[in-house]
Amino acid sequence: MASNNPIAEDLIRRTAAYVPDMDFEGADRPSREKPWAKWLEAELGFRNHWYPTQASRNLANNGQLSVKLLGEDILMLRRGGRAFAIEDRCCHRGTRFSVRPICYTDDTITCWHHAFTFNLDDGRIRTLLNDPNSSLVGRRGIKSYPIREVKGVIFIFIGDIQPPPLEADVPSGFFDEDVAICVADPYVVNANWRLGSEGGYDPGHHFIHNWSKYAINARIPMTFGWTSKKEALLETCLYESTGKGPSGFTRIAAETNMAMSAIIPGRNGDSGTEVVLPIAAGQTQAEIEMLGASNYATKVGAWLPCSLTVDPWPFPGVVHNEYYVPRDANSHYYFQCGWAKVNSPEQAEQWTNGQLGQVRWKGPVADDFTVQDAEAREGIAKFYAEEDGWQQEQIAAFDIELLMWRVFAGDNCRGIQQKSHTQGLFKR
Ligand SMILES: [Fe+2]
């Protein structure tokens, strides 16, 4: 099968044998180590990437916030207007600064336990208040995390390498000058981050959204799930790994089958029963087709290290962008933002801080539609955390896109977070 999508072709070749009903010429035979072994290892996330962490507005001047990223305890502070992120663990004996953060100056923090005092920007010991001549001064320290604030979002880099530009980990369009960002307060979802990363673009998951108030109110039937037309699988997911933006793929929805009615076959010669999505059942065929035409021309993208774009959603001109930021093995932060093209600084303000972003994105999407996604992730969390789900899952044909993503993500990540990193065994 020749294609102009060599990455997808390679991914199908490596995963087809693990999927039922998927004949693919030249497919690799199944091996004991699955081709998505790195994905299985990445319980705590991918190391050496940038992660969105908070809305700038939530970190007040002279304020601080504790956060756990990829299992690492981090203290974010704003002093003198500048944002910092430091290891929340004194190098002396492990005291958590966050219990009582003491900043006598705008560029230092003093441990409330034994008065070790550190630079906020590079983490080095500035002085010991009770032993200023200590030879530890300037030589030892804590980790200070690279931090960047762009368009009201605070990003933190978790890793040991010289951080690549933020643009390498944030989907393109975010930085465009005429794009304004509305940020929802992130919240904790009790499921491993990978279940978010798979669930956001999972072609089979749309069924859950038939219970989203937004879908009900807008009378949008969300189908029983998309299934890529087999002959078009190579055209469905367009992978990119250019080094400029994040690595990932976009799915072209036009190449999928969308079912709004289905048959439950009868047994013993009984005739089948047709089931129709409740929202679809209440509408004429013409009404549904009209909605279908306006609703499904969306492009869904999955990106490293942990984000999703839906372009446009829920309205033309608006891009929904969400991140499943690893917190620990059993939870992640659901970080969501809506992008809109704007024509003026006033419009940008209306979108970011005024009513526009609330009404056209945050209300229908972050406060409503995606609540079902978070629920769905928590619904499978126990299986994957405690019941050997990664080995026990029964893959169906449409799940091949999940397997392809797992392999691709493992191939293109910059590293894998280890438990030792959470214990402070990293480069400072
Ligand atoms: Fe969803």
Q: What tags apply to this protein structure?
A:
single chain, binds fe (ii) ion, Naphthalene 1,2-dioxygenase Alpha Subunit, Chain A, domain 1, 25% helix, alpha+beta, Rieske Iron-sulfur Protein, 428 residues, eight-stranded antiparallel sheet, three-stranded antiparallel sheet
Present the secondary structure layout.
Blueprint: H1 6-15, H2 37-41, E1 49-55, E2 64-69, E3 72-79, E4 82-87, E5 108-110, E6 116-119, E7 125-128, E8 147-150, E9 153-158, E10 179-183, E11 187-189, H3 193-199, H4 213-217, E12 226-228, H5 233-236, E13 237-240, E14 248-252, E15 256-258, E16 261-264, E17 273-276, H6 278-281, H7 285-295, E18 299-303, E19 307-311, E20 318-328, E21 331-341, H8 345-352, H9 355-369, H10 371-386, H11 389-392, H12 400-412, H13 419-422
Helix pairs in contact: 1-12, 8-9
Bound molecules: fe (ii) ion (FE2).
Tell me what you see in this structure.
The chain has helices at residues 6-15, 37-41, 193-199, 213-217, 233-236, 278-281, 285-295, 345-352, 355-369, 371-386, 389-392, 400-412, 419-422; strands at 49-55, 64-69, 72-79, 82-87, 108-110, 116-119, 125-128, 147-150, 153-158, 179-183, 187-189, 226-228, 237-240, 248-252, 256-258, 261-264, 273-276, 299-303, 307-311, 318-328, 331-341. The protein folds into two domains: 6-43 and 167-422, Alpha-Beta Complex (Naphthalene 1,2-dioxygenase Alpha Subunit, Chain A, domain 1); 55-163, Rieske Iron-sulfur Protein (3-layer Sandwich), CATH 2.102.10. The strands form six sheets. Strands 10, 11, 13, 14, 18, 19, 20 and 21 form an eight-stranded antiparallel sheet that branches. The protein has a three-stranded antiparallel sheet with strand order 1-9-8, with no helix packed on it. It is built from 13 helices and 21 strands. It is of the alpha+beta class and 428 residues long. The chain binds fe (ii) ion (FE2). Fe (ii) ion (FE2) binds next to loops. Fe (ii) ion binds next to loops.
